[in-house]
Amino acid sequence: MTPTEIKETLDREFPGSVIDNEELAESQIELKPDQWLEIATYLKNDPGLNFDQLECVTGIDTGEDGPLQSRYNFHSMEHRHKIEVVISLDRNNPKVASIEQVWRVGDWFERETYDMFGIIYEGHRDLRRILCPEDWEGWPLRKDYEAQETYHGIVVPKIKEEEWE
Amino acid sequence: MGVLEHKFQDNVVVASMDKLIGWARSTSPWFFQFGLACCAIEMMATAASRHDLMRIGMIPRSSPRQADVMIVAGTVTMKMGLRVKKLYEQMADPKYVISMGSCATSGGPYWQHGYHVLKGVDIVVPVDVYVPGCPPRPEALIEGLLKLQEKIQAERPLTRKSV
């Protein structure tokens, strides 16, 4: 199926869940967060779609006033088609359903996105930081991130832009 | 050793204890494998057959208890920094540290924007020799190790230091 056909299928099965976003590429689909778990299960189990491989989960910070996005890349081994799902979340309360129990590989992907962007994956059975230490402060890949200057008594002086030049 | 030299039969060596200990320590500094990033590849190459660290008496060890030298080869993150310190504390005296490469020495390419990188391993452990490079070639590392051997040889462990 082409991405447009997949988009039409999703719109038919889950009316109102697909958001039209002109900025996205043809293979990208923006979805509303509320029905995400059902849609994900459908993406995996429907014989016509059969997305058996979750290639990546990552986050995007669209900037100061923009939303945080949780993005998923799916691939079907059988049909050889791919899509990218984009879910925009409120940056003050970024919560979305976890698909860790649909695709098991989502476990670590979601933990990494949680670690870097602070997106809460609801229903994840083990949502801990995966790369940063557990007592790390802040979400490093957010645009408004301020690096902490001490960590367990290790003082790390900040190097300012002027000193560098 | 002046007047005592050549006074005895074969198999008797006259030397000061300081020198003997320095000689023993400097010629077999077993090193603690501490590959943290790409520098580890060069460290492995140094230990492998072409450069053959065994020539200068160095054998890689996997446990801090058996090692004399810790070669910190690679980027030390804040998370790892605490562990580096803990492992250094587990090593038996006398112990030495070599900071290999730009990252371990100063943070390297993460100097400005690496939020998670320790800007130099000397913040958490005392460093004896710094080897510059990104990563240093095996020849550079061997140069650093020879410098360390000189340093160990020059130590006077039994001489009471005047305070």
Description:
The complex is a heterodimer of chains A (165) and B (163). Chain A is an alpha/beta fold and 165 residues long. Chain A has a single domain, classed as Beta Polymerase, domain 2. Chain A contains 4 helices and 9 strands. Chain A has helices at 3-13, 36-45, 106-117, 161-164; strands at residues 18-19, 28-31, 53-61, 68-75, 82-89, 95-97, 120-122, 150-151, 154-155. In chain A, strand 1 (18-19) and strand 2 form a beta hairpin. Chain A is elongated, with a radius of gyration of 18 Å. Chain B is an alpha/beta fold and 163 residues long. In chain B, 34% of the residues lie in helices and 10% in strands. Chain B has a 5-stranded parallel β-sheet with strand order 2-1-3-4-5. In chain B, helix 1 packs antiparallel against helix 5 and helix 2 (39-47) crosses helix 5 (138-154). The longest helix of chain B has 17 residues, at 138-154. Chain B is elongated, with a radius of gyration of 18 Å. The two termini of chain B are 27 Å apart. The relative contact order of chain B is 0.18. The mean pLDDT of chain B is 88. The interface between A and B is medium-sized, with 14 and 12 residues.
- Number of helices, where a helix is a run of at least 4 consecutive DSSP H or I residues of chain B: 5
Give, in spatial order, the strands making up the sheet with the most strands of chain B: 2-1-3-4-5
**Low-confidence stretches of chain A at least 5 residues in length (pLDDT < 50)?**
none
**Hey, roughly how much beta strand do the residues of chain A contain?**
15-25%
First-last Cα distance of chain B? 27 Å
CATH architecture of chain A: 2-Layer Sandwich
The radius of gyration computed from the alpha-carbon positions of chain B, rounded to a whole number of angstroms, is: 18 Å
